[in-house]
Amino acid sequence: MTWHVLGAGSLGTLWAARLARAGLPVRLILRSDERLADYTRAGGLTLIEQGAPQRYAIAAETLDNDAPIQRLLLASKAYDALDAAKRLAPRLAQDATVVLLQNGLGSQDAVARHLQGRRCVYASSTEGAFRQADFQVVFAGAGHTWLGDPLRPTAPQWLADLQAAGIPHQWSAEILDKLWRKLALNCAINPLTVLHDCRNGGLRDYPGEVASLCAELTTLLQACGQAAAAEHLHEDVLRVIDATAANYSSMYQDVSQGRRTEIRYLLGYACAAANDLGLSLPHLSDVQRRLLAHLAARGLPLD
Ligand code: NAP
Fold it and tell me: How far is the CA of 138 from the centre of ligand 1 (A)?
């Protein structure tokens, strides 16, 4: 069965290249004729692993193609996922599966609501990749991807394709725990790195702020029924700060390069959840207020 991959960005390329390398049928979906012409000129997708580039001439089409889709990997940013799903909905078979690779929370539920009937598998990945140039992606960090379906706990048979492609993965009946935990880690680290203009390790100079955020995020996770995701959060945040001390967070990189952030699906989602529950989390709200002001001052989108 063909893997349709929407988005020839970092993760889309990382998945498409490995699936194609394993001899599995893959088709890329690009946003316009112009992007398709750029892709044709580039001669395919290039994945650079340990400094070695390898080109994959994967077939590609635009959103306007009308051939039916049985399996879709949606590899856009969270803020683009619903629009992309709306564009592709008429092409999706009733028993199609859609794998959602977005970080944070909120976009997956929005897509699943729109695509009712189709199986939506949520993914949480610690793999790292970045775009070096158009259609050229560097595989920057080995990691793992958890996949799960909040509505149906049975693992799908196509996981064998991921095995064949060497994509490290695990089916998880608790995918929402994984996504919440990752969101909480992100909320405790990424916004502060932007506000303090520092690498992750620079947060060692702000232990009180980190501790206050972790305490409030723990309260939030517990109130949202995510007690497992709340366990030892502060310890884990300190561990991540140490383990990634030399790195700039993804939000830091987005802001410093003038790119739109996924704030609405990370800190914004946490603050909205607290609001819905009537929880007062003053440190989290204060960080959100300061971050929004920081983005506004740079002319970056606030959602
Ligand atoms: P990315 O490099 O920006 O790639 C997103 C791709 O989606 C772009 O190529 C974009 O096309 C494409 N796209 C968006 N809307 C589209 C549409 N309607 N039709 C066709 N293509 C469309 O993003 P990414 O880094 O792969 O991130 C994807 C998600 O994975 C994010 O939620 C991110 O937080 C998460 N994640 C990323 C990493 C990582 O290391 N990169 C790790 C873990 C999680 P254009 O090129 O035309 O703009």
Answer: 14
In short, whether 63's Cβ falls inside 6 Å of ligand 1 is yes
* Domains observed in the chain: 3-173 (3.40.50.720), 177-297 (1.10.1040.10)
pLDDT in tens, the chain (303 residues): 999 999 999 999 999 999 999 999 999 999 999 999 999 999 999 999 999 999 999 999 999 999 999 999 999 999 999 999 999 999 999 999 999 999 999 999 999 999 999 999 999 999 999 999 999 999 999 999 999 999 999 999 999 999 999 999 999 999 999 999 999 999 999 999 999 999 999 999 999 999 999 999 999 999 999 999 999 999 999 999 999 999 999 999 999 999 999 999 999 999 999 999 999 999 999 999 999 999 999 999 999
User: Ligand 1 pocket, 75 CB below 6 A?
Assistant: yes
| Whether this model's pTM surpasses 0.90 | yes
Q: Which residues are catalytic?
A: 182
Q: Are 12 and 6 in contact (CB under 8 A)?
A: yes
138 lines ligand 1 (CB under 6 A): no
Structure tokens at 145: 């991807």
Instruction: Judge whether 64 and 91 are in contact, CB under 8 Å.
Output: no
- What is the C-alpha to C-alpha distance for residues 231 and 172, in angstroms, rounded to an integer? 18
Q: How far is the CA of 6 from the centre of ligand 1 (A)?
A: 9
Give me the sheet containing 136-141, strands edge to edge.
52-56, 45-49, 136-141, 128-133
